[in-house]
Amino acid sequence: MHKTLVPAVSPEALAEVRRTERRQRRSALIRYAILIVCGFAMIYPLLWLVGASFKTNREIFTEIGFIPLAPTVEGYIEGWKTSTEYTFGRFFLNTFAILIPKVIATALSSVLVAYGFARFEFPGKKLLFAILIGTLLLPNVVTRIPQYLLFRELGWLDSYLPLWVPQLFAVDAFFVFMLIQFLRGIPRDMEEAAMIDGCRPTQVLLYIVVPILKPAIISVALFQFMWSMNDFLGPLIYISSVEKYPIALALKMSISVTESFEWNRILSMTVLALVPSLVVFFLAQKYFIEGISTTGLKG
Amino acid sequence: MSGVVLRQVSKVFANGFKAVHEIDLDVVDGEFMVLIGPSGCAKSTTLRMIAGLESITAGEVRIGGKIVNNLPPYERGIAMVFQNYALYPHMKVHRNLSFGLRLKHEPEAAIRSAVSEVAGILEIEELLDRLPKELSGGQAQRVAVGRALIKKPQVFLFDEPLSNLDAKLRASMRVRITELHRRLKADGLNATVIYVTHDQTEAMTMGDRICVLKEGHIMQVDTPARLYDAPANTFVAGFLGSPEMNLRPATLVRHADGPALRVGGFTVALPDDKKRCLESRDEGEVVLGIRPPFVELATARSTTDTVEGIIKFVEFMGHEVFIYFDLDGEEYTAVNRIENPGLLKALKVGERAHFRFLMDRAHVFDPTSELNLTLS
Question: Which of A197, A212, A218 to mutate against chain B (most B CBs within 10 Å)?
Fold first, then answer.
């Protein structure tokens, strides 16, 4: 047996340590209690929504709790059928038909414009950048009427073109700004090394900048995905035939067409409408957070 | 032929700052040229102009006899190693190495053999399947050198490649790069190297010749030995060598047997060759330059080359001793080997001691033009 070199702790010191531990535990307990209560209050509407989608129409308005007494999927089955000739699946497909080209166009154009601003010198760059940032402050609504007139002249009404095409011109200054910030944080050495290795500027963009920008580009795509998923005004203005409606319009339609509407159907479809955004977010969460935290922007 | 020639090259930045002032530099084929200077001396800018990463405001740059002013970097036949390695983070090491060859659509078999050859030379075979973030600093630097080497360029450009490494690694990489240059030469690839650094040990040990820059002007271009022994001006004299050369005011006086120096109340005789250089010069203020190893502790006073100073501070370094002494208000440094422990023990701070100036290794500079007056 060899003796330990640690001196014996006096009983007073031990008691003090215990007291401190107790105090810390107590304060942690209070902290977490407050956080849990606040957090629960925040998430309650969402829980209620999910719970209510499994309730009968009568129960929704009679019971306050979010756990259904007699769970039923009737809302989902009936809601999916919709009051129109199409199922809700059709509206989902429409939504993706708007979304996917829009997201791709946004990512492409924003990367190109951001690369230009971040890495090249050209006459009028400062002014153009100021204008770009200026449009960040401009409410979207301001441009709705001139845009509508323009697209009417082009004969693009009741098609998805007014929703797709503007994205090819990097109209979302927020995304361009986010990518520029990200690029500013990346040293140019790698791009210069690539130039010496034989890359032309477009190859530098393709082989070096885009792979390095990946987290930021994924963030841009995610933002655009979620915002477009929830976009109501755009489709409302330009899309008039029901067969082309995205989810946002379809949900609104089911509220307005009948007078005594079936709340459980609407809530069920709302829950389904949330699913794509959630799935995409959790799949890309890692990149999303990387992209946001490196740009210094908080969503 | 892969010499690099700069003729009256200037660089003015967009904000109007003139970084490089009409410099002329001839780097001959196969030479290892080091560009050195304090930060802000435009050594990196000069290198980047040669690389094509920075535009040239005026003058011309020739590589292998061809004017390259308006050629993009990839058409200049150069390869560059960056300070922070600049490896492509999303590519594995072998992809990093072969990226340039792949862009040229070289056949796969040729690429593979080139990668394994370079990996062999730099001993990075076991790293080929790693990502840059999984490499240590020294390994990343070797990969960066490999990426330059694989292109078999006419000219290698190094931009402070070792400054992010710790002292030990730096020393071994220094040897490795010098050896690589020698080996390439022996293999018939007469590659010219232009190497930027702010570290004088690197400059002195690696360069065939060194170009010393200050604020966008070339101060001197010569071999390491010549720069040390015959600095053209006070800047070069003070910049190279550690501890720094003593550059202190002195007065040129005329005696019957020719010019001599008055330093802190003592007269120091000059050797004949230096006398000849100073013969036509009037009496007056000059700057005496003498390196610390050439200031020797002396036992007795001699009238021709000895001064008497007050010891301020003594540092024992093991094999040698640094003595800081005051001579009429000016601080001098002497570095002496410990050959006489008894004598050194007698050194006491605050006491007087004799120091002999080895004047045949000393220099005399003009105080205004700062030029060396004693270059024969």
Answer: A197
